Amino acid sequence: MKTKVFKANERGTADHGWLKANFSFSFAHYYNPEKINFGALRVLNDDVIEGGMGFGTHPHENMEIITIPLKGSLKHRDSMSNKWIPIETGEVQVMSAGSGVQHSEMNNHPNEEINLFQIWIIPNKENVTPRYDQKKFDESERKNKLQVLVSSIDNPIEDSLTIHQDAKISRVDLDKNTDFKYNLEAKYQGVYIMMIDGEIQLENEILNKRDAIGIEQTSIIDIHALEKSQLLIIEVPMRF
């Protein structure tokens, strides 16, 4: 097993007043040659956006974009005729930019901030027809068990959203002193685990809120929750 720890306080940062961002990988004005990507995982931003603010219309192409609100409500508009669709905490949004799409993402509340994860995954097909989807996931369905949010469009997992890559994005909420095993889909895959909250032990590492770890060259990952914990687990090809 090969592992690399990414501590929360070592992430890149940006403070634009209306937007406070933490970057797990190089993004915008933050550049770290040792943090470009983890396999096909290119971006994992932890954003806090003030009420009524957000990202104006801008383009994307050939990227799978996943948004997970952790607190608050987002709204989405795009060039595929979607007009200010709300995305609430508990929902997940996916957008395949493909051959090209323009979109806007705004805080859906005028006064309350929103905290979200924005994830970009490099696709295995280019110039596909752009597509959009979102889905609500029941929090109770990830209590001490894996809840798959996103899977491959070529090999979809029931009740998940899909993207153009052999990837899987999941969540699990663990009670204190719970042991959990994660089984990888294939030996060429790697797993990036982001601690949403809590404290876990993985191998000889202790991970706390917003710490992360990249793991490859293994088929099973053993996790022990030292405290009540919430994990985001992103499995991606390391060769793509």
Automatic annotation (TrEMBL):
<comment type="similarity">
    <text>Belongs to the pirin family.</text>
</comment>
<dbReference type="Pfam" id="PF17954">
    <property type="entry name" value="Pirin_C_2"/>
</dbReference>
<feature type="binding site">
    <location>
        <position position="103"/>
    </location>
    <ligand>
        <name>Fe cation</name>
    </ligand>
</feature>
<dbReference type="InterPro" id="IPR041602">
    <property type="entry name" value="Quercetinase_C"/>
</dbReference>
<feature type="domain" description="Quercetin 2,3-dioxygenase C-terminal cupin">
    <location>
        <begin position="156"/>
        <end position="236"/>
    </location>
</feature>
<dbReference type="InterPro" id="IPR014710">
    <property type="entry name" value="RmlC-like_jellyroll"/>
</dbReference>
<dbReference type="Pfam" id="PF02678">
    <property type="entry name" value="Pirin"/>
</dbReference>
<protein>
    <submittedName>
        <fullName>Pirin family protein</fullName>
    </submittedName>
</protein>
<feature type="binding site">
    <location>
        <position position="105"/>
    </location>
    <ligand>
        <name>Fe cation</name>
    </ligand>
</feature>
<feature type="domain" description="Pirin N-terminal">
    <location>
        <begin position="11"/>
        <end position="121"/>
    </location>
</feature>
<dbReference type="InterPro" id="IPR011051">
    <property type="entry name" value="RmlC_Cupin_sf"/>
</dbReference>
<feature type="binding site">
    <location>
        <position position="58"/>
    </location>
    <ligand>
        <name>Fe cation</name>
    </ligand>
</feature>
<feature type="binding site">
    <location>
        <position position="60"/>
    </location>
    <ligand>
        <name>Fe cation</name>
    </ligand>
</feature>
<dbReference type="GO" id="GO:0046872">
    <property type="term" value="F:metal ion binding"/>
</dbReference>
<dbReference type="InterPro" id="IPR012093">
    <property type="entry name" value="Pirin"/>
</dbReference>
<dbReference type="InterPro" id="IPR003829">
    <property type="entry name" value="Pirin_N_dom"/>
</dbReference>
<keyword id="KW-0408">Iron</keyword>
<keyword id="KW-0479">Metal-binding</keyword>
